Model the fold of this input.
Amino acid sequence: MLSTEELRRYSRHLLIPEFGIEGQQRLKAAKVLVVGCGGLGSPILLYLAAAGVGTLGIIDGDRVDESNLQRQILYGIESVGKPKVEETARRLQSLNPSIKIEPYFEQLTSQNALEILEPYDVVVDGSDNFPTRYLVNDACVLLNKPLIYGAIYRFEGQVAIFNYQNGPNYRDLFPAPPPPELAPNCAEAGVLGILPGIIGCLQANETIKLLAGIGEPLTGKLYVMDALTLLSRTIKIPRLPERPVIDKLIDYDEFCGVKKEIPDDENISPNKLKLLFEEKADFQLIDVREPHEYAIDNLGAILMPLSQLEQWVPQIEQEKRVIIHCQSGMRSQKAIQLLREKYGFTNLKNLEGGIVAYRKLG
Done:
């Protein structure tokens, strides 16, 4: 039953004939897990909390970075450096004290996914990488949970509902992941700040429709929009005749080809790099990001963009230690792999976590 306070709070919902008290009670009884509280997770969580979803689970192992604030509207400058789930829980509880928040300050993995997802009625994917998307999908299939999917890339966004009423799952849309070099995340490819707000709101809308039992769910269909033109289209997703069998959770980094190509002893930690700076050690530091990224923030490295790296090979030292970095550690790994396999370099170190991790040292 709804309390007097809840009747006042949700009065605009209750006035809608198709929604009414029954729809609101269904929201109150629902448990929804949102994977990731970043660009997509921010609007998803804010609107589900405001709408009165009774229990919201939030899982994210990251801390707030200043670069998040361009699109992750849950946070302010005072949140920088703090765990996202803690800041999110505080913000959502302030927005709606009557709902229950279940924060998980950890990354979703094959080891914990089934246990974490099991208590929830619906799962909403706000992640930004293919390994997590496949993991969430497969866990939902094994647990028979509907999945509200969303994805963004620069100016394009996508929304769909998977594994609902015998509809297709994510593997019907993407049976195999794209090569890692064709699947950058927001930190590598960029994204228009408003786009996750639009797509996240559409995911929240689909979640509310599904929970309240109203409207036509976006199951079996992929909604695609272009923020530059505001043109959109809806594509039918057929179930594959020979759809992949999902009977267990696997190593999704390996499946998506993003398992570390560099042995641990060929990485260098941000703390170690800081110590080398302090000791004024003799090494060459190379930044493989693009010029506009370097202009925003840099460590004083020599700029050799990955897209032009081969023309810089003669200027890369071979007789002393060379440390290569990028924004988050992905492009630097690709650079090292190229230089090792094609040019025979054996003196290269990769900065773990890139400049993002280094700046977190303070």
